[in-house]
Amino acid sequence: MEFFGKFEKVFFEASSASSLETPSSDSSNSDSNAAPPLAYYDGRDLFYSSVDIMKDEATYQVEFPENRCRSMKEVPFPVVVKKNKCLTDTIELYTSSPNKQMDPILMAFFEVMLKHSLFRKQYSRVGQSFYMLNNNARPLDCFIPAKDVFAGFHLNMKHVFNGLSIQVKDKCGVFYKSMPLIQLLVAFLSSFLALMTVFQCDFWQSDGPQESDFWMDKYRMVESNKFVKKLKIRIVSQSNSNGREKTIKELTENPASNTHFEDESGKKTNVADYFSQHQRLNYPHLPCISTRGKNVEYFPLEVCHVLPKQPVKGLLDPNSISSLIRVAAKPAPDTFRAIKDNMLTATQAIQSDMDNMNMSIERSMQKTEARVLEAPAMKYGDGSQHPNNGTWYPRAFINPKQVKNWGACIVSRRSNRSASDAVKRAIEVLYSAGQKLGMEVGYLAYENMPTEIQPSQLEEFLGFCVENNFELVLIVLDNKNTEEYSQAKFLAERKFPGLLTQCAQMRTIQKINEQSATMILMKINAKLGGQNAECDLTLVNPTNGVLFTKEHPVLVQGLETSIIPGQESLIGMASSYDQNASLYTMQSRLCENVNVVTSFLDMQKEALKTYYRLTRQKPESIIFFRPGTNEHQISTTAAYEITAIREACKQLQESYK
């Protein structure tokens, strides 16, 4: 990134454009009054400009940052830039006729320009979201240990029938507090690993065997390394390194008193003794941090201070997620005001860029007509339920399955004497809830279950379950976000296909009630091939009861897209295979263009074959839901996919239409 930042400056200087802060620099140093640049860099490999600033091809000499590559000296590095397309005429065409379909390159230009402008005007960008993190910014009232929560917004560009629109979403971002690194590490190990008791006893002591036992635990060391890696810190000590900013590479395996290096005079010493020359170290038995760069440097934990407002990467622990949800879940009027205020501030910040394009942003939100449909009734085995404000309580399943030969295990890296009793109590609640739902839940296959196992024993345990023909395995985990969850699903779906598993968090099991037990049983019944409920479709049937009958079967399908930047996009298509469109099959493909899915014909043929194989009927009608495309592209996409649907029917049977 530093190299591309240097190249960006060289490019703009050569093009006589306005000065521009590089993406790798701190946005707080940018000049909010600077004139807009003549070109915008997308951070990857493209520059966008509304004026012609270069010839067809040009070569620029950029000095490669020596500290980023040990094998290269800081010498000029040639970069060739080629003109791809001139956007001047395209922009003029759009401004004169905004209702016409927009060139995708022009759409990308507007989005890059908008986000680049926000970055230049003191906004900090995290992913696709923006936060104003200047000295006046105040965190939200949300308690997450060692972290602050700031309000922000996410935006992207959309082209609708009445012109170009900006879609804005209210966001909350989590950032590390500025604090001593050693305190941040304490908060991490206390909350994420739930080791507060062990931590207080072992971590701080240097006169007993406990601290070596603590850091000898590979899991703790690996997780701690993941946590501190790439954190930016400032050295606070009385040594020559005082005030220097560094990026953490990793924690050392050995404590500071046993991590050796050569000092300035070439004498071999350890980190603790070296820093003890300048100040007293309280915790020489703790590991050090090593820093990134050409020459690796070592620093004791207690001289490191975390720089403020660094975004938290990775998953939060469950308690932090709950706290964040409570702050982020706001009533619709509050969200409306937050979005309006954010856009007002952002519009003022980027107005000069918009003026340069002869464009403006409206102050008021765009109004869209909508209608509220009456909620359909949910049919159960013993009657119907009408949702009230989107909620209803499940009744007896339509087609309940039985669970007789099944097992349970507790996967945890640490022993918990009360865990087994908690699971046994939860199974009693599942048994009671199953009776009300018409679902028979038997007792565990073996008296010594649930079995407490280490993650390394999970594969062996699941293999035992397969050998004993278990219908289901309940896997209780410390946290759903742990590696054990992915491991369990991988083993069940790849290593032991056909073995059904239901994962649950220990905190859910400990607090289980009839409602949460019902939710778990709904998932289990669906996995076993049962049917919990079906939707009464008469309310949404425009043909007075002709559709969704045995005489007129209907195939309901939906296609969803997941765009992965720089890679092929993921396409998923769900297809119903029952009379009430409550049971679905799933297909997935990779695709380069989400608007024209080249494998759509094959997917449709497979869906029709599956429908016929499971129902022994051919659908008389197909209802297809297709999100993931803009209003201008939908007509082209619909024409392509409707043609493919008809062709799929024709290829399966000439007379089938």
TrEMBL record:
Gene3D superfamilies, sorted: 3.40.50.2300, paz domain (2.170.260.10), Ribonuclease H-like superfamily/Ribonuclease H (3.30.420.10)
GO molecular-function terms, A-Z: RNA binding
Keyword Cytoplasm: no
Alphabetized PROSITE patterns for the sequence: PAZ, PIWI
Sequence ranges assigned to domain PAZ in this UniProt record: 217-308
GO biological process terms held by the UniProt record: regulation of translation; regulatory ncRNA-mediated gene silencing
Protein name: PAZ domain-containing protein
Source organism of this protein record: Oikopleura dioica (Tunicate)
